[in-house]
Amino acid sequence: MSSDQITILVGTTKGAFLISANGNRSDWTVDGPFCDGWPINHIVGDPKTGTIWAGGGGDWYGAGVWRSTDGGQSWDKSRLTKGTMDDWAANDSDFAQMIGWTEAPLPFADAFSQIWSLNYSHGTLYVGTKPAGLLASKDNGETWEKIEALSNHPSAESWNPGAAGLVLHTIVPDPGNAKKIWVGISAAGVFATEDGGATWERRNRLSNAEACDHHGNDFVKPHDGETGHCVHNMMRAPGDDDRLYQQNHHGVWRSSDGGRSWDDITKGLPSTFGFPIRVHPHNPDTIWTIPLNGDSIGRYPPDAAAAVWRSRDGGDTWQDMRDGLPQKGCFFTVLRQAMAGDTRETAGIYFGTNSGSVFASIDEGDTWDEVARHLPTVLALEVLERT
């Protein structure tokens, strides 16, 4: 993988794919599937070494992390928990031989079923699991340590699962401070550590609690002075002021103090529901999101016409970007990890759909091109740029 290439890392229900382009972000090519067809919930890369990690699994496979150090040509699998196939193979030698199974100890037995998120920062690889937990590896995924302080948070017994289960789906490190990390858990909310994971603080408070409905009892919805615990995706803005944005089950929110308080910036969007959110790599006021038509009425673009909505003023106002996107009969969904961006001065924005398409914009959302189609359901996108 040369330094003038850009690669979209794609996790799908049937393995990982790599979509590569030249330095002009054109002439896209698709390679894959990789990872033996495992469901890949998230996939990330290290821009310095080019190493790629893909995490996923499920009830059948158990949970695991795949690693490639040669641009996707070969992959090593690290299984962390067992799945149904292990139980079958242990009791059926013919089946065991058919799938090439051999009995081996797994570091976390049956403690969780899937890897849901990954992040590599400050020399540490973090993964989030289902049920919600956080693991860390200091040796690129060879060995793992569970961050027990998060699992043992005083609120843990009250955590409720979202529709996809109780999952830790978003990991947001501070690029300038290895000890500061935020995570998003559905449906328990935002948690933050400033001491490397030794202690964690729950951060869901509204900046204006009086404006909130205090009479609701649904943990998903804003009530009792909180945003609602079903955070869908979250990202830190560039800069030193710990500005965060989140797409919640009920609205888009901005925090100017590292999540200690949140402002509702949904006004101007066509709905409160959506999954991903993206922040410009250099401008903390520019963000993108993809509203869907609602929780229980289809979860597709309003009026079946696709649009990415962009704000240039931190969410105070919004503009819909539609050029190149389908405007009739569009019923796809864009999931929480399925929107990514590159770090060019004029930022590229990318998203994948549950109908197997990947769209790219190299002009910050003004225009869009479909760079891949007919993939399996896209679960996650990230961008790898070699530095």
Detailed description of the structure:
With 387 residues, the chain is mainly beta. It is built from three helices and 28 strands. The strands form seven sheets. It has a four-stranded antiparallel sheet, with no helix packed on it. It has a four-stranded antiparallel sheet with strand order 4-5-6-7, with no helix packed on it. The protein has a four-stranded antiparallel sheet with strand order 8-9-10-11.
Topology:
Elements: E1 6-12, E2 15-21, E3 29-34, E4 40-45, E5 52-58, E6 62-68, E7 76-79, H1 84-90, H2 93-99, E8 114-121, E9 124-130, E10 134-137, E11 145-146, H3 148-151, E12 167-174, E13 177-186, E14 189-193, E15 201-202, E16 231-236, E17 244-248, E18 251-255, E19 263-264, E20 273-279, E21 287-292, E22 308-311, E23 319-321, E24 339-341, E25 349-352, E26 358-361, E27 369-372, E28 378-385
Helix pairs in contact: 1-2
Key attributes of the depicted protein:
four-stranded antiparallel β-sheet; mainly beta; 3 helices; 387 residues
Concise structural overview:
By secondary structure, the protein is mainly β. It contains 3 helices and 28 strands. The strands form 7 sheets. The chain has a 4-stranded antiparallel beta sheet with strand order 3-2-1-28, with no helix packed on it. Strands 4-5-6-7 form a 4-stranded antiparallel beta sheet, with no helix packed on it. Strands 8-9-10-11 form a 4-stranded antiparallel beta sheet.
